[in-house]
Amino acid sequence: RRGGGLALGLLCWLVAEVASYTPWDFSWGARGDPSAWSWGAESHSRAVPGSQPVTVQCQEAQLVVTVHRDLFGTGRLINAADLTLGPAACKHSSLNAAHNTVTFAAGLHECGSVVQVTPDALIYRTLINYDPSPASNPLIIRTNPAVIPIECHYPRRENVSSNAIRPTWAPFSSTLSAEERLVFSLRLMNEDWSAERPFTGFQLGDILNIQAEVSTESHVPLRLFVDSCVAALSPDGDSSPHYSIIDFNGCLVDGRLDDTSSAFITPRPQEDMLRFRIDVFRFAGDTRNLIYITCHLKVTPADQAPDPQNKACSFNKARNTWVPVEGTRDICSCCETGNCEPPALSRRLNPLERWPGRRFRRDAPEEIEADVVIGPVLLSADPGAIGEQREGGDGAAVAVTGAGMGLVCVAVAVALAGVAVAVGIARRGCARGSAGA
Fold this sequence. Notes:
By secondary structure, the chain is α+β, with helices and mostly antiparallel strands. It has helices at residues 2-20, 172-179, 334-337, 344-348, 402-436; strands at residues 54-58, 62-68, 83-85, 94-96, 101-107, 114-117, 121-130, 146-155, 183-189, 207-215, 222-232, 242-246, 263-264, 273-279, 290-301, 313-316, 321-324, 369-378. Strands 1-2-5-4 form a 4-stranded antiparallel beta sheet, with no helix packed on it. Strands 3, 6, 7 and 8 form a 4-stranded antiparallel beta sheet that branches. α1 (2-20) packs antiparallel against α5 (402-436). One of its GO terms (biological process) is egg coat formation.
């Protein structure tokens, strides 16, 4: 009896301890994805107390970026040498040891920044790269790399300087209109093409909606074409690795692959605008999860019929053939052979030399084509990831996938049910034991 009473007492104590334990009280730590952390956007990571981790000053001719060394709000300071600015990896300009901040100062066109021209603004885009060096033990790392996008917006139709400019003979608007310059641009659009969308937060399996356009001002009607598009890890489309999205004078070759739905959007919204969509991808083996897309845009007279050198062709998988946005299907036949080179005579001619009527030739602008870069487009982590890495005292990390979290919930439910049954039985046993004593 004494042995049975002792065992029953131990069982009661164990049940009490189990009943007081809360298995759903997990501490997941920071839930941000630092590889797709956009400056200015609300982050799920803990912020640095009393300050922003990254601040930007968009000045007249340069941008100044200040980064707090407690970048992730964990209380651990990162190495200033692990931070660089832009695809060119420019080093920091100064280091403030008292405030634990690192400052970068660079011209708007320096360090590989990309400029996007919209009807109303000039947008300069660059990024802060955090590439952590190995710890004291080269076999382990304790932090993830990060890419933080930076943007500076400047109005196109206003003077950026604080000092007024007094032209002696003509205002800006009249001068630009008289020069008849074309402004080519690429814009990343939302799902219904109604507005631009941020360059961050994309997942593999998403779609990039890209809108190419040209501002024609007072020109005679023009038709815009996307001659080629190349994706790379920097604004330089010739860098390695790179991947051709559009090639052969307007063939969307990415849509030829079995696992993509990339295509031009038909019909055009207007002659001086062309839309296309591509499936999101990333370069294998690159931890930054970003891409730049460089496209070569050009125009022809709107009344000139499309031809093999000026076309927009998508591959129709259902019909197993190339289909143009406009024009006859034979202009796309060279997309399959990969040889869309023009004849020797037309190669020597400027495309706008074929304008009907000599009286319109004086209205043709000199710059009828341009290379335009869009990016960096940043990819987030796996959308199924519920828990992110959490640094502990020993550098341990916690990661739970969506399916794993479901299994955890089921296991917790079963455990709770078992605990409830055990508590009920034990309490009955304890009550009987007390009564017998």
